[in-house]
Specification:
By secondary structure, the chain is mostly helical. The chain contains 23 helices and 6 strands. It is found in: Membrane.
């Protein structure tokens, strides 16, 4: 069994991934296998070694964080679109009916729902379209292509004054580019990050989404207060939030330009042995001639040779019929991503401003800032939890906790309480709900889906899972304004039922992928193991 020494930490190249600590006082070993019973190092020492490992991979952390800023693009849209859709200037520009109390135009509930939701249809298609491109030109070029198209379509949207059809068309194509980014970024990070901090770095993508939502809510508050309330017809109130999209796109583009191509893509798809070694050495801060680099890339190439011998390379439906159990993995991924949306999280983020306005909260933009702040701050705990508690347990506890919150939310919402008391209770329960989401199924769903699939089918399988996520999101975004108008807070019981189903599904079907290599995950599915 070969060992590779990195500083004072010795990394065992066996599948169990042992670390050995050498000091003058003691010599102890521990495993990062996700099972606390095998950890023979005290908690403080364990965390100290883990932080040392992270510091030794600072370059990989920085590069992965830059790429993960792609989540900011999606978060920015979620954080701004709901507030923008109720701004007087936006409604005056694109509305087609007048209000009862004034001659000002406004969007109908159906048009508002269509404006918000058509973006999700584009996202569903974008992931599938760009996944095949990334298998041909690489993950980096795929991301850069999506970013270039995003900036072009954003420009069209900014100049769609008064033309609702053009606005919808640009929203749809914008969704195509964001859908591509939402698949390619987690996949690229998962394939490039050092294995022991892979989960935490994929969670950074979700953190960027929450940051985008928070910043978007803050900017909506500022533009509404200083522009819309001063001049209700000032179109800059809704255009300024859109303009910031250029900044987030530029940051992701820089990250994609300076980060090496995924070692998995180079080795398993392009069969470029030398480039794969260089990529791995950069992202793991070791020499290209180090035994760890050579062994890791050789292992990837050996598995690729096995695939070629079995003629799976040209199998059109390998993502369904490949072994071991690719079809089952795909179904698990689809359900995990669908349940993420069926939790009801975007019920709050898309329509929170109009929802809380109905219970007497006057400054709904400020309320949105509170909710998105809770979302952003809580996600930091998710970065820790995904590596300590593991993927599967985090999903189970999160879904059940959100189920309890949604039961309370729907129950209190339907009771005939005083508006001041009702608004206070709903905000508290909603904050708790969002906090649990941000710590658990929000980030961990992306991690699980990024780790479930082998490199050969990862882009296609992840894009299919992402598409189901977006399609469910579309249905919720489109139907919510109409449903809220009909049954109000009773709608919450629907999401509570979905969360209860999610808890059961995750307990019985989702495997634990923490610190597992691609080969170990294959072994788990081949032998029907949960961990």
């Amino acid at each position: 069994m070969e060992q590779v020494t990195i500083g004072v930490i010795s990394l065992d190249s066996s599948p169990t991934e042992n670390y050995t600590l050498n000091t003058a006082e003691t010599r102890q070993s521990f495993q990062l296998s996700g099972k606390s019973e095998v950890n023979t190092i005290p908690g403080e020492k364990y965390e100290e070694l883990k932080m040392k490992y992270i510091r030794q991979h600072t370059k990989a952390v920085v590069l992965c964080c830059l790429i993960s800023f792609g989540g900011m693009i999606l978060g920015w849209d979620i954080g701004t679109v709901g507030g923008v859709s109720i701004m007087p200037s936006f409604n005056n520009a694109f509305g087609d009916q007048t209000t009862i109390v004034s001659s000002a135009k406004e969007l109908s509930n159906m048009k508002r729902g269509l404006y918000i939701s058509i973006f999700n249809i584009g996202c569903a298609l974008g992931g599938i379209m760009f996944s095949r491109l990334s298998n041909t030109v690489g993950r980096r070029v795929g991301i850069l292509t999506a970013i270039a198209k995003y900036t072009l379509v954003l420009t069209v949207q900014l100049f769609s004054n008064g033309n609702f059809i053009l606005l919808l068309a640009s929203r749809f194509v914008l969704g195509v580019t964001v859908g591509a980014i939402s698949v390619l970024v987690p996949m690229f990070v998962s394939e490039s990050a050092p294995i022991k901090i892979r989960g935490a770095l994929v969670v950074v993508y979700q953190l960027a989404i929450t940051l985008g939502i928070l910043f978007g809510n803050i900017l909506n508050y500022m533009t509404n207060k200083h522009l819309s309330m001063v001049d209700p017809m000032n179109n800059m109130a809704w255009k300024i939030p859109m303009l910031f999209g250029y900044l987030w796109a530029a940051i992701v583009a820089v990250g994609a330009c300076i980060t090496p191509e995924s070692v998995h893509f180079l080795a398993k798809i392009r069969n470029d042995y030398e480039s794969a070694k260089i990529s791995y050495s950069i992202m793991n801060n070791i020499s290209v001639f180090d035994h760890e680099t050579i062994d890791y890339v050789n292992n990837l190439l050996v598995k690729q040779d096995v695939y070629n011998e079995n003629d799976l390379r040209n199998h059109k439906f390998e993502f369904l019929y490949g072994k071991p159990k690719y079809g089952k993995r795909l179904l698990i991924g689809i359900m995990v991503m669908a349940f993420q949306q069926l939790s009801g999280i975007n019920y709050f983020f898309y329509y929170g401003t109009s929802l809380f306005k109905s219970v007497g909260i006057k400054d709904t933009y400020a309320t949105a800032i509170i909710l998105s702040s809770v979302n952003f701050i809580s996600t930091f705990a998710g970065i820790y939890l995904v590596e300590s508690l593991g993927r599967r347990s985090t999903l189970i506890y999160g879904s059940f906790g959100m189920f309890i919150c949604m039961i309370f939310y729907a129950s209190f919402g339907t009771l005939s309480l005083r508006k001041d008391l009702l608004s206070f209770v709903l905000i508290i329960v909603t904050c708790l709900f969002i906090s649990i989401f941000a710590i658990t199924i929000g980030p961990v769903s992306f991690v699980v889906v990024a780790e479930l699939f082998p490199t050969r089918t990862r882009s296609v399988s992840m894009s299919i899972c992402s598409s189901f996520n977006w399609l469910v999101n579309f249905a919720i975004a489109l139907a919510t304004p109409v449903i809220i108008n009909r049954i109000g807070f009773l709608y919450g019981f629907f999401f509570a039922g979905c969360l209860l189903l999610a808890t059961g599904f995750e307990a019985f079907f989702v495997p634990e992928t923490k610190n597992k290599t691609e080969e170990e995950i294959d072994y788990m599915f081949q032998n029907n193991l949960k961990s």
